[in-house]
Write a structure and sequence with these properties.
4 strands
C-alpha cells in the first residue's frame, strides 16, 4: 500500500517476520497461556497423589514410551473402552489429572486405553504381560520388557524392582477407584486361596451371578460353532491355558496360584454350567488372572468358545475333525440348583451346596453330583478360567464316585 507522502507498509522481510510472529504469538496465547490462566478444574473424587513407588513407575512408563501406544482418557463416545465391564459409565474428567504436572494422555490407541487400568488385571497377569505380552495375549504387538527381569543360571526368572514400580503405577491408573479395584482383586485372591486350603472348592460359585447357573448354551453345537470356537481359543487363550488346554501355558511361570484352568480335566467341565463359563469369559474372574474378554469378543464368539471348551477333554485342541459327539456337555453339565454339588464324600450323608452358596440338608448324593475327597487338601489348580478347585480327576477309584471314563 502506498500513499503520495510515502509507503505505509512494505512487503519486505521485516514486515513478514513481524506479521508471522504476531499470528504465532496469538495462537500460543489462546491455546496454551489462556487455558492455563483461566481453566482450573476442581479435583475429582477419583484424583489422588501418587506414592513414591508409583511415581517411579510413572517415570519408567514415560521413559519407555508407553504413551505412544496407550492413551489415558475415555471419551463419551468410548462406551466400551478396555475392561469397561468393571468401569462402565466412567468418562475421563479434567479433575482426574489434578495431581499430574506432566500429562501422559497419549495420542494413539495402538494398544488399549489405560485410564482405568487399575484393578482390571491382577499383579501376576502384569508380571507375565510385561515379560512377554504374547503370553497373555498372543496377538499383541507390544514389545517385551524382559530387560526388567533377571534369569539365573538355572533358568529361573525373577523380576527387578523397576518392574514392580511400573506395575504399581499401572495399578494406580483410574485414581482412587482403580486402587480400590486392585485392592479388591488381591483380597478376593486371598479369600479364594484361603477357602481352597480348607477344602471349600464350591466357594468359587459365589464369584458368578446366580442367574448364570441355569443358563444353557443357546448356540447349536455345530461343526461351524466348534471350529470357530477353536479359532477364538487358540488366538486368545493358549498363552495361559496351553496348546492342549491343560493350563500349562507359558504365562503360568508367573500365574501359578491360582493357576490357569486345566480344561483337559473332565471334572472341570462337570463342575460349571455353560452360563458360568460364559460369565467367566465375558467378565473375567476377579481375584484370578482371568481377564474380561467382553470388549474383544462378541456374544457369538463366547458361546462358540464355550461349545469348543467342552470338546477339550476329548482332544478338541489336538484333532482337526471336530464333531459335536466330542462334547461332554450338554447334557452332562446340569444346573447347579438342580444337581447341587456335595462338599464331602460321606456315603448316605452328604452335605450339599445350595444355590445361595451355603449348605443345605444332608442326604444321599444324586447321580449328577460329583463328590470330592474329604481327606484330600486341594492343590492350586486352574483359576484363569471360571473358578477353581474342580473335583478329583475322573478315572480314580470307584470309592470316589467319579466316572472311570469320559462321557
Amino acid at each position: 500500500m502506498h500513499q503520495q507522502d510515502g509507503a505505509v507498509f512494505r512487503m519486505d522481510g521485516k514486515t513478514v517476520f513481524l506479521g508471522a510472529l504476531t499470528v504465532f504469538s496469538s495462537i500460543m496465547f489462546v491455546v496454551i497461556a489462556l487455558p492455563f490462566l483461566t481453566f482450573n478444574p476442581p479435583r475429582s473424587a477419583d484424583a489422588r497423589p501418587l506414592s513414591k513407588q508409583e511415581e517411579r513407575g510413572r517415570v519408567l512408563y514415560a521413559s519407555n514410551g508407553c504413551n505412544y501406544c496407550h492413551s489415558q482418557y475415555i471419551r463419551p463416545q468410548d462406551w466400551t473402552a478396555v475392561n469397561s465391564f468393571r468401569t462402565v459409565g466412567r468418562v475421563a474428567q479434567a479433575g482426574d489429572y489434578f495431581y499430574q504436572e506432566t500429562l501422559l494422555l497419549g495420542t494413539e490407541r495402538t494398544g488399549p486405553d489405560l485410564s482405568q487400568e487399575g484393578g482390571s488385571h491382577t499383579d501376576e497377569w502384569h508380571l507375565a504381560h510385561f515379560y512377554n505380552p504374547r503370553w497373555t495375549y498372543p496377538k499383541s504387538i507390544m514389545p517385551q520388557f524382559s530387560f526388567y527381569y533377571e534369569t539365573s543360571s538355572t533358568g529361573a526368572i525373577s523380576q527387578k524392582g523397576e518392574i514392580e514400580d511400573l506395575i504399581a503405577y499401572v495399578q494406580s491408573l483410574g485414581g482412587q477407584a482403580g486402587v480400590e479395584r486392585a485392592a479388591r482383586q488381591r483380597a478376593l485372591k486371598a479369600r479364594l486361596l484361603e477357602e481352597r486350603a480348607k477344602g471349600n472348592e464350591a466357594v468359587i460359585h459365589e464369584w458368578f451371578q446366580p442367574t448364570w447357573r441355569n443358563v444353557r448354551n443357546p448356540m447349536p453345537a455345530s461343526i461351524r460353532s466348534l471350529s470357530h470356537g477353536k479359532q477364538v481359543f487358540t488366538t486368545n487363550c493358549i498363552g495361559c491355558h496351553g496348546l492342549t488346554g491343560d493350563g500349562k501355558g507359558p504365562a503360568t511361570y508367573f500365574i501359578s496360584n491360582p493357576a490357569p484352568r486345566n480344561f483337559t480335566d473332565a471334572s472341570v467341565q462337570l463342575y460349571f454350567s455353560d452360563g458360568e463359563l460364559y460369565d467367566a469369559i465375558l467378565f473375567g474372574v476377579d481375584g484370578t488372572a482371568m481377564p474380561s474378554w467382553g470388549d474383544i469378543l462378541t456374544v457369538n464368539d463366547i458361546w462358540d468358545t464355550v461349545n469348543f471348551i467342552r470338546t477339550i477333554p476329548n482332544g478338541g485342541l489336538t484333532r482337526d475333525d471336530l464333531d459335536p459327539s466330542m462334547m461332554i456337555s450338554p447334557p452332562d453339565v446340569r444346573p447347579i440348583d438342580v444337581a447341587p454339588l456335595p462338599t464331602a464324600n460321606i456315603p448316605g450323608n452328604v452335605p450339599v451346596v445350595t444355590p445361595e452358596g451355603g449348605q443345605g440338608e444332608t442326604g444321599d448324593a444324586t447321580p449328577a453330583a460329583v463328590p470330592t475327597n474329604a481327606t484330600a487338601v486341594p492343590t492350586a489348580r486352574s483359576e484363569t478360567g471360571p473358578g477353581s478347585g474342580a473335583p478329583p480327576q475322573p478315572g480314580a477309584s470307584p470309592a470316589t464316585g467319579l466316572p472311570t471314563a469320559l462321557p
